[in-house]
Predict the 3D structure of the following.
Amino acid sequence: MNSKKLNLMQITHDMAHGGLQNVILNICRCIDRDKFNISVLCLRNLGAFVPELEKMGVKVILLPQKEKTDYFSFHGVHKIIKKEKPDILHTHNTQPFIDGIIGSFFTSVKTIVHTDHNRMFPDKRRYMFAEWVVSHFATKVIGVSDYTSDNLNKYLKISRKKISTIVNGIEPEIFEKEIDKTKKLEELGIKNEGPVIGTIGRLVVEKGYHTLIDAMKMVVTQFPKAKLIFVGEGYLKNKLMRQVEEFKLSKNVIFLGSRNDAPELYHVFDLFAMSSISEGLPMVLLEAMAASCPIVSTDVGGIKSIVKNGLNGILVKPNNPEFLSEAIIKILKDSDLKEKYITESKKILNLRFTASVMTNNYEKLYLNGKNITTQN
C-alpha cells in the first residue's frame, strides 16, 4: 500500500448515547491517523458525542431526513460521498447499510464494511430482503458476537463467507476513575443509605426493564433502602414510571434520564443489572466490568461471551423476576463473591474486549478487504 492516507467514512443514524455510537467513537479514538482520515455521516440527527468527535478532529456531517419515510434518501448519501470522496465506508445497522451501499454506486468507494449491532429477529420482511440484496455489494458484514453473526446468516441469508465476527471493545481507563460515592449520590439527590443497583440503556422493550422493576419488589424485602437507578431515555419511560408507582417503589427507583457522566455513575453502583430480552454484545457490560462493578444479566444474545456464569457474574433466564432478584440479592449479601467477579471481569475485559483490539481488527478489514479473516 502506498503512503497516501485512506479516507474512511462511518455512516450511522446519529451520534447520541448508545452502544453502536460508542463503537464508532472508540474507532475514531483508536484509528491509526497515519493511515486514515476519518469522518462520520449522520443520517437523522447529530447527538451528544459530536463535540467529542470534533475535538478529536473528526469531521461530522448531518444529512437530515424528511419527517415521513424517505425511500430515496440514498440520493443525499450519494451526493455527500461524491463530495467527500471516501475510499472506505463503514455502515452501522439497517438504514445506513442500505443507503450507504446504494449511495456508493458510481463513486470512488472501494471497500464497504457493514456492522450489525443486533436487533430482534425476525425483523420486517422488507428490511431483511433489502439487506440481503445490498449485502452482495458489501466487502464484509460484521456481527458483534457469534450470536449476531449466526442471525445474519439464519435470517438475512447472508453467505457465511461474507460474515465475520468482531467483538466490541472499550477503553478501560476511561471507566477506572475513583470518585467520592457519597458526594456523587448527593449531587444526584440520593442518600447513601443502602445498596445501589444501576442499569444504563434505552427505555425500550428489548431491555426488559419491566422485569427488573418486578425483581426490585423482592430486593427491597431484603434491602428496604436499596435504590435502582435507570440511566437513559426511551418511549417506555412513562409506562415504567407507572409500574414503579403501582408497585409502591417510588422511594427505591430513580430515573435519571440521559447523562454524560456514565464513567462516574458506574462507581456509585454496587451492582449492574441487565434484564434484556435481546442483545448483541452490550458495551455497557464492558464498561461496568472496567469500573469494577459486578454484573447480573439475562442470558441472551452474545452476553455469555462477556459474562461467564459463576466466574465473573451471574446469568439468569430472561423474563424471570424471581431468578433476577435472587441473583441480585446473592451478590449484595456476599462481598467475597463480589470481589471475585470484579477480578475475573478485569481479566476477561483486558484479554479480548478493548477498543484497541476491536479497532485493529477493523483496520485489517479496511486495508485488506476480502482477504482478511478476523479473529473473535
Summary: The chain has two domains: 6-169+354-371, 172-352. The two ends are 26 Å apart (CA to CA). The longest strand covers residues 6-12. The chain has a mean pLDDT of 94.
